[in-house]
């Protein structure tokens, strides 16, 4: 049985639903009634609109939030270029695109004093934020809470913790994100990440259309990720009149400006451009109850669509605990080649296509058209297994799937934690042909 992760006593409060137009205020009466920009907003607050889509996009796609804050975010000096650290942004052209299957061990522990942003390590990606298409894959390892505030103008950030609980303090409220849950920081929203322990995990940076729930088609009105399980924070603010550095990622580079106050000062807001958290234990896993198993698109939690119907810029797919009951069926993932590129990570447990070597915090990349599938040990075991109903329990893997080849960064290619001999997992697949 799966249950939602326990929340701590000081867990922040949330509003429920996916893509809703929420209304929330941290102080009663802070939100203007009847209009968005009154002559004098309540409590001496400033009104500011965050528009994440063009004004004239259709209602179903339109995203904007009105914020009522202590200071307008415009009150700041110039942004100055600062070093990018290990962050990289498309176009990815440091090294040639590589067709090989690649696997990494978990990231090494963070150098003491590393915060979430400094701990980001870009693995690769495709496309560019300057053209609004594509994505980047990052991992992170950090041991120190941020004091800066960060904002990404290049794309939204899907954060997948593998170790350590994150407290994500945003302009629009607080999110509590332990491993097993994910959070989404929308493009252009300011935030700070705090934690009481060393943390590690994965980030998908989506340059394209905002992640949304997939269509259900013949599944019907229920199943997969349910709208009501997505949690959006209630308004929360900090009133700090002291220097706070705001670091912005813009066009692939980091820029910093010194504010004289915290920009996390939104006392009330309403709108639908907001961060959210989702517990992967709430994902209703569907599968075959006869034979074979469906394509892994059935495990899609969120999808960023391209203009081509059904073609994703990014799919976030989760391989959660589930029953396998297929008769006369090879139950692990089959051998396959795929026009999509697949980056997989492991949050806990083991993955049913790899008997060993794919570890929590580690990752694999099977690029477009790369031949892959179960390793030799898994193939041997599953071909001989007695096909009784089987529960896959100790597992939580995920995939960032994308529509174009992923090109690695030089640092991901040369990383000490890249495994040198991943191809060897398929070397024991001997000839079994009997004419
Ligand atoms: Fe695959």
UniProtKB/TrEMBL annotation:
- One Pfam entry for this protein is HgmA_N
| Residues spanning the signal sequence | none
- Mind telling me which residue stretches traverse the membrane in this protein? none
Q: Which cofactor does it need?
A: Fe cation
- The reply to whether Acetylation figures as a keyword in the UniProt entry is no
Give the UniProt keywords, A-Z. Dioxygenase, Iron, Metal-binding, Oxidoreductase
Q: What EC identifiers does the entry list?
A: 1.13.11.5
Q: Could you give a GO molecular-function term held by this entry? A: homogentisate 1,2-dioxygenase activity
Spans annotated as Disordered: 1-20
Q: Can you give the residue ranges of the Homogentisate 1,2-dioxygenase C-terminal domain?
A: 282-433
| Enzyme class label | oxidoreductase
Start and end of every Homogentisate 1,2-dioxygenase N-terminal domain? Answer: 14-280
Indicate the family of this protein.
Answer: Belongs to the homogentisate dioxygenase family.
Q: What is this protein called?
A: Homogentisate 1,2-dioxygenase
């Amino acid at each position: 049985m799966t249950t939602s992760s326990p929340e701590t006593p000081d867990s922040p409060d949330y509003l429920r639903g996916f893509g809703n137009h929420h209304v929330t205020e941290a102080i009663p009466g802070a939100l203007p009634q009847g209009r968005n920009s009154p002559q004098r907003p309540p409590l001496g607050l400033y009104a500011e609109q965050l528009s994440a889509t063009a004004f004239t996009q259709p209602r179903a796609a339109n995203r904007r939030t009105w914020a009522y804050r202590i200071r307008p975010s415009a009150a700041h000096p110039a942004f100055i270029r600062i070093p990018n650290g290990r962050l990289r942004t498309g176009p990815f052209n440091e090294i040639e695109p590589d067709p090989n299957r690649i696997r990494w061990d978990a990231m090494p522990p963070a150098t003491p004093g590393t915060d979430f942003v400094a701990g980001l390590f870009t693995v690769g990606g495709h496309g560019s934020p300057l053209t609004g298409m594509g994505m980047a894959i990052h991992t992170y390892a950090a041991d120190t809470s941020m004091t800066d505030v960060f904002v990404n103008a290049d794309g939204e950030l899907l954060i997948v913790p593998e170790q350590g609980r994150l407290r994500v303090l945003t302009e629009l409220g607080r999110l509590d994100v332990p491993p097993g849950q994910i959070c989404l920081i929308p493009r252009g929203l300011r935030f700070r990440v705090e934690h009481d322990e060393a943390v590690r995990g994965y980030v998908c940076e989506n340059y394209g259309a905002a992640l949304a729930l997939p269509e259900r088609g013949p599944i019907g009105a229920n199943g997969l990720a349910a709208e009501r399980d997505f949690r959006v924070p209630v308004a929360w603010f900090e009133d700090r009149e002291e220097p706070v550095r705001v670091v912005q990622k813009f066009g692939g580079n980091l820029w910093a400006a010194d504010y004289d106050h915290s920009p996390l000062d939104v006392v009330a807001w309403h709108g639908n451009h907001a961060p959210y958290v989702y517990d992967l234990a709430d994902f209703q896993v569907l599968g075959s109850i006869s034979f074979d198993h469906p394509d892994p698109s059935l495990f899609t939690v969120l999808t960023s669509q391209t203009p081509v119907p059904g073609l994703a810029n990014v799919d976030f797919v989760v391989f959660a605990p589930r029953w396998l009951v297929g008769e006369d069926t090879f139950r692990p993932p089959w051998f396959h080649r795929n026009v999509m590129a697949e980056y997989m990570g492991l949050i806990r447990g083991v993955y049913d296509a790899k008997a060993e070597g794919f570890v929590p915090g580690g990752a694999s990349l099977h690029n477009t058209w790369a031949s892959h599938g179960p390793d030799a040990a898994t193939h041997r075991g599953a071909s001989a297994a007695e096909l009784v109903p089987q529960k896959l329990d100790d597992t939580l893997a995920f995939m960032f799937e994308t529509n174009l080849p992923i090109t690695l960064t030089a640092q991901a290619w040369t990383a000490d934690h890249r495994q040198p001999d991943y191809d060897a997992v398929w070397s024991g697949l001997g000839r079994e042909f009997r004419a």
